[in-house]
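Field guide to reading this record: the first block holds the primary sequence, the second block holds the structure written as discrete tokens, and the final block holds curator observations. Each block starts with its own label. This record concerns Acyltransferase family protein, catalogued under organism Pseudoduganella flava.

BLOCK 1 — SEQUENCE
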Amino acid sequence: MRPMHRTSSRQCGLDTLRAFAIVLVFANHYMGFVTQRPTFGFVSEIGWAGVDLFFALSGYLIGNQILAGLRTGTFSLPRFAARRLLRTLPNYYVVLALYAFWPPFADSGRHAPWWQYLTFTLNLDLKPGTRFSHAWSLCVEEQFYFALPLLAVLVARLRGAVTAGWLLLAAGLAAGMLLRHQGWQAAHPPAWGNGAFYTEVYYATLCRFDELLAGVALAMLRQCHAPLWARLTAYGNWTLAAGIAVTAFAFRLFLDDHFGHAVTVFGYPLLAAGCALLVLAALSPASLLARVRVPGAASIAVWSYAIYLTHKQLCILLAKSGIDANAPSGIALLAGASVLAGWLLYRVVETPFMLLRERYVPAVKAQPLPVAQAA
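BLOCK 2 — STRUCTURE
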């Protein structure tokens, strides 16, 4: 069976960002659930932001699909839903079955009601230490992509739809800041050991839309403001430098005062801006990010969803088996096993369903511009 995604048809800049994102997440989870120490230095501590980069990528890719379809009159809600579900559900439910039916794979944490896992509502009132807790980000995405196409279809019917779209994006960002302010007060005093911060802020759907909205904003620029998009993508290396600078500054703020009020309220929009600039740089043909193909990044990007689902519990399981997770050899073994498990899930589960998707609900070409494979 041939792979579903051919690297030659992908944009290497987006693949590099996606590979970087899963590396960040791996480093953070390795610290939080395997060694309980910053094995990879500050990268371990800030690695949670890999999820935010995933959000920005996904926001752009899915937003671009929807807006391009609406612009050309080819968008179909049933087709969008079918393609999205065939992309996300098979891998997710297979891993969920491992948690449910294979005791060695399930950790000792509490488990939420199964209906929350099955309906992508786990993140609602999620407590740290819950089994399969990293599925919270998938819940946020699925909830967002349930609402986004419905809103987009409604807004597209309005006179002044583009202006209304920008106002909705601004309102979403403002609502996120307000809700994080309220969540911070509810969780006060927030700290690493205070699970209320995660429940009220970190896992909460409306508090974590910033990067998704930033990605959709990029899609709006591309689909609704083509001349401006052309000018912006003409300065790819400047955009890349700005993205690195803004993201690094956001990282510094979170490392210094992760649970501070100002960082909680304004840090996520700042991080969203940095991630969006990086995505914009990846889409700029002349930028280094778009032109330099990092060896292995395309493959890691293709497998990243499967790696994300499996890596945390696999590493916990292997570390409990006696592997020294702090030794270089142990780190290499656990990292390699995570990639191998992701590849296996991709080949055995994801690829057949992606082939079915392309056979029965193929993508409709909405524009001549090349767009990377959607999330």
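BLOCK 3 — OBSERVATIONS
The first helix runs from residue 12 to 35.
Confidence is low (pLDDT under 50) at residues 1-8, 367-375.
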